[in-house]
């Protein structure tokens, strides 16, 4: 699909400096630009590349004025980085704007769907499923019985949504995600054996949530595992049964959250963090990568380490830890001199 400089400027509310009719059909880095590509300049250290780039169109800030001759057509906007991001989002919408039901699929007679849905080949849509308007279900996805998926949500290839789960509007469920698998619930007996505790709850995901590839969200034992509005989950995260994650919290890859833990709003949790079960983490909490959280955490705390300490305390302690051999030697020397 091709776009002219003027069409792009209209989308971005920008001004064309150069050939308004020049066309592009692909995106590129400014240092790797080729004819027919669109790029952008936001970081000043990349400014030299604008004089050599072969990209047909470059998005720049309104304040940019070239000091040397350039070949690329400019589109001047208020903020080049934000405008390029907006264009990427627009491009993604066009690229993924599929509609219709491919063949073969399994579509239960009791299922319903809204307008402009897309259901890819070999997808399975179970009993009493409801898909809203503009929902996209990509090939080989599994949607279990009694699942509801609201408007404008995308479920990519190979994702599995087990029975009774509820997915909100404008969500993205990436490939390999499993939503609603059984929680890890077993009861030991006097023989040292374990009996499975039935997991009969569900998962509720609110609006504008994104779930990264190969992330798993377990169903509740009773009630619901809840992911609140605006949460962003990276790849390969484990969220156990009855966990609740508050609005607009972001969690990086390989984090594990044990059962029944409640995480507040606007938290930022780094990669490979481990969080024990049955605790509460407040709002606006920041947890550094590879930390281990084994206690309740108050609002606005910043933590690091395993077990995690307040961030400033961890940094002070780490200075001493690095000097530990020297400190031990000094102590040994003092002890030796004491007895001489």
TrEMBL record:
CDD domains: LbH_LpxD. Pathway: Bacterial outer membrane biogenesis; LPS lipid A biosynthesis. Keywords: Acyltransferase, Lipid A biosynthesis, Lipid biosynthesis, Lipid metabolism, Repeat, Transferase. GO terms for molecular function: UDP-3-O-[(3R)-3-hydroxyacyl]-glucosamine N-acyltransferase activity. Homotrimer. The gene is lpxD. It catalyses: a UDP-3-O-[(3R)-3-hydroxyacyl]-alpha-D-glucosamine + a (3R)-hydroxyacyl-[ACP] = a UDP-2-N,3-O-bis[(3R)-3-hydroxyacyl]-alpha-D-glucosamine + holo-[ACP] + H(+). Belongs to the transferase hexapeptide repeat family. LpxD subfamily. This is UDP-3-O-acylglucosamine N-acyltransferase. It is an enzyme of class 2 (transferase). The active site is at residue 241. Its EC number is 2.3.1.191. Transmembrane segments: none annotated. Residues 21-89 form the UDP-3-O-[3-hydroxymyristoyl] glucosamine N-acyltransferase non-repeat region domain. Catalyzes the N-acylation of UDP-3-O-acylglucosamine using 3-hydroxyacyl-ACP as the acyl donor. Is involved in the biosynthesis of lipid A, a phosphorylated glycolipid that anchors the lipopolysaccharide to the outer membrane of the cell.
């Amino acid at each position: 699909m091709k776009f002219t400089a003027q069409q792009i400027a209209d989308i971005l509310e920008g001004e064309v400096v150069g050939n308004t009719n020049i066309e592009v059909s692909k995106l590129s880095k400014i240092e790797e630009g080729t004819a027919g590509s669109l790029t952008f300049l936001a970081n000043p250290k990349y400014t030299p590349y604008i004089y050599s780039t072969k990209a047909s169109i470059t998005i720049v800030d309104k304040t940019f004025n070239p000091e040397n001759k350039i070949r690329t057509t400019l589109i001047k906007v208020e903020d080049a980085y934000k405008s390029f991001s907006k264009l990427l989002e627009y491009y993604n919408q066009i690229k993924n704007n599929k509609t219709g039901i491919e063949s073969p699929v399994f579509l239960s007679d009791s299922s319903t769907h809204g307008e402009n849905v897309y259901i890819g080949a070999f997808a399975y849509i179970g009993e009493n499923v409801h898909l809203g308007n503009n929902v996209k279900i990509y090939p080989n996805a599994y949607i279990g019985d009694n699942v509801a998926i609201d408007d404008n949500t995308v479920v990519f290839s190979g994702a599995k949504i087990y029975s009774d789960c509820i997915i909100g509007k404008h969500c993205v469920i990436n490939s390999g995600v499993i939503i609603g698998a059984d929680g890890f619930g077993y009861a030991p007996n006097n023989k040292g054996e374990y009996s499975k505790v039935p997991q009969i709850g569900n998962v509720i995901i609110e609006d504008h949530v994104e779930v990264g590839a190969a992330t798993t969200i377990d169903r509740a034992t009773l009630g619901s595992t809840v992911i609140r509005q605006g949460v962003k989950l990276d790849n390969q995260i484990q969220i156990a049964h009855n966990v609740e994650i508050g609005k607009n919290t972001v969690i990086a890859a390989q984090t594990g959250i044990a059962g029944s833990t409640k995480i507040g709003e606007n938290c930022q949790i780094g990669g490979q963090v481990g969080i024990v079960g049955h605790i509460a983490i407040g709002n606006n909490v920041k947890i550094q990568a590879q930390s281990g959280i084994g206690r309740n955490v108050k609002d606005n705390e910043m933590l690091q380490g395993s077990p995690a300490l307040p961030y400033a305390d961890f940094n002070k302690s780490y200075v001493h830890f690095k000097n530990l051999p020297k400190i031990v030697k000094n102590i040994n020397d003092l002890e030796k001199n004491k007895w001489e």
